[in-house]
Structures are given as structure tokens and as C-alpha cells.
């Protein structure tokens, strides 16, 4: 199960935080938003509450990618998230407080981190 979680995380991160963010490096905030929306759309079969969580997790992965400049951290965190989510299937309503807290933390970092304000910061074609 860990291998499946890692394989899925690797593919999704290469597509959404690797390729997509590298091609929008001039506008990192917009790149993170578009990448998170695309990632959420990929998970469209989930419940509405879970989609909110997916969106904010994707936003957080995008922030990690821009700040660290590394896709490796995103893959690792994503794989762990997938692995843990398979074992714990909370009711839909239970994920809403987590999504709200994650969104507040994500937006705080997004608005304050200097790498997210400079054009061309954090990501380059060679890092994909």
C-alpha cells in the first residue's frame, strides 16, 4: 500500500507541482491556485467536504514547492498523506475543521512569504 501511495503521489506531483508550476514561474500565486484547482478537479468524485480538503492540501503542496524549490518534499508529504488517509476514513463533516485551519495557515504563508512575491522565484525549468 505504501508503494501505491508513493507512485500516485509521484505522478500527481510531477503533473501538478512539477510541470504546471514550472511553466507559471512569473506568477507563483496564480500558479499555485491554478495547480490546486486542477488537482481538485482530478479528485472530482470525492465528497464536497473532501474536495475542500483536497484543494487546501494542493495549495499547501504548491507553497512547499515554491518555497523549497524541490518537488521531493511535495512527493514525500503527499505520499504520507495518501498512506494515512487510506487507514483513517473519517466522516465527511470531520474534515471541515481541518480544512478551515489548513486554509487559514496556507493563506497566511501565501500572503507573507517573500519568495511568493517576487517574479520568477523558487521555480525554474531545470528543477522539473
UniProtKB/TrEMBL annotation:
Keywords attached to this entry: Hydrolase, Membrane, Metalloprotease, Protease, Transmembrane, Transmembrane helix
Domain of life (superkingdom): Bacteria
Ranges of residues in domain CAAX prenyl protease 2/Lysostaphin resistance protein A-like: 1-84
UniProt-recorded Gene Ontology molecular function terms: metallopeptidase activity
Transmembrane region(s): 31-56, 63-81, 93-111
Name of the protein this chain belongs to: CPBP family intramembrane metalloprotease
Organism: Luteolibacter rhizosphaerae
Amino acid at each position: 500500500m505504501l508503494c501505491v501511495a508513493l507512485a500516485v503521489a509521484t505522478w500527481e506531483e510531477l503533473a501538478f507541482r512539477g510541470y504546471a508550476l514550472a511553466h507559471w514561474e512569473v506568477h507563483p500565486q496564480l500558479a499555485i491556485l491554478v495547480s490546486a484547482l486542477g488537482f481538485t478537479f482530478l479528485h472530482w468524485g470525492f465528497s464536497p467536504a473532501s474536495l475542500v480538503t483536497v484543494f487546501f492540501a494542493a495549495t499547501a503542496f504548491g507553497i512547499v514547492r515554491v518555497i523549497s524549490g524541490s518537488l521531493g518534499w511535495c512527493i514525500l508529504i503527499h505520499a504520507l498523506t495518501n498512506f494515512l488517509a487510506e487507514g483513517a476514513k473519517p466522516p465527511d463533516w470531520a474534515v471541515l475543521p481541518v480544512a478551515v485551519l489548513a486554509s487559514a495557515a496556507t493563506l497566511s504563508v501565501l500572503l507573507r512569504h517573500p519568495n511568493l512575491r517576487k517574479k520568477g522565484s523558487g521555480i525554474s525549468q531545470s528543477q522539473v
